[in-house]
Sequence to fold (371 residues):
Amino acid sequence: MPQTSTLPQARKLLGLEGLRFLATVAVLLWHYQHFAFAGGAAVAPTRTELPFYRVLFPFYEAGEYGVWFFWCISGFIFFWKYRTVVADRTIDGRTFFVYRLSRLYPLHIATLLLVAVLQPIYFAQHGVYFVYQNNDVPHFVAQLFMASDWLPPRSQSFNGPIWSVSVEILCYAIFFLLLRFVTASPLLNVVMILASLMFGTQVGTSLAFFYAGGLAAMAREAIASSRRRQIVEAMAWCVAIAVPAALWLADIELVPIVGPLLLAYTPILLFCCSGQLTLPRRIETMLEVTGNMTYSCYLLHFPIQLAIALACAALQRPIPYGDHLFWAAFVLPTLVASHFTYRWFEAPAQRLMRGTLLRKKQAGRTSPAPL
Fold:
């Protein structure tokens, strides 16, 4: 691949890498409750009895909102890295989508096929599928094109967590088309957020958080060389700390306001955490590693759960999901597997796809740091 790239080599946003990993852990622990699945129904376990609940209760209680953080972080990174090169036509549509799909598709297709093999075995044992029940040919075809959840309701099929990535694919297309043919301005982002909220669908929610993250990126870029940068950052950090503190002290019920709250708060948090960090090299490397493994963890954890459920059924033993050792035997190997999957499968497959699909067009260019 080439010596120079059509895409800028933006500095690593180490703070966002850390947030992305926390969002992944949130989803991983939220889905830990899959182990309570029984008899074709999702059985909600007593969460207070789950392993390490006193420490991990935010993830057990609200981990599903980690998906919203993902969408917002994606919006920040896309506007940070692609906004200018898409708007000024430095990058064309083919190159843009090859870069995105080469990051997402190889592991998606691998885990889709894995689940498609394992679910019939579980069905033969129990007469139902594990957690996600719509494992038929039409849903498989939709999954092949990463289009499973473009329309409501949720597909609940095969490797279920991919639904949020399927929705995000539409965000990428809208992002590219608006920048290429309309404009790039904070006002457009505000309009997109307000319009998206009117849809009342997962696609609308995804777009709203994506463009809110884009606003945070624009704000960060706007103050990059400003003399008042430190003052603005200090004010943002005050808000980022004061909001959760105030909610805790006031003992406010969060469920009714969680959507507007996260939509307003998450971009502020991203703005704060996207500042330049000076850290020991070892910590920087650790943050980069955790950031790289997030997609693998997101797509691997359900197939691993399914394999564990099959093993327990074969041994005619219930899944001991309340046991601390079992928790460790699931979570830690999943994280380790995610790291090596990125290193040995994701990254090589990504380079192969980009090298093959863009060889003639971009011979001799280096691919940018993966997102």
About this structure: The mean pLDDT is 89. The radius of gyration is 21 Å.
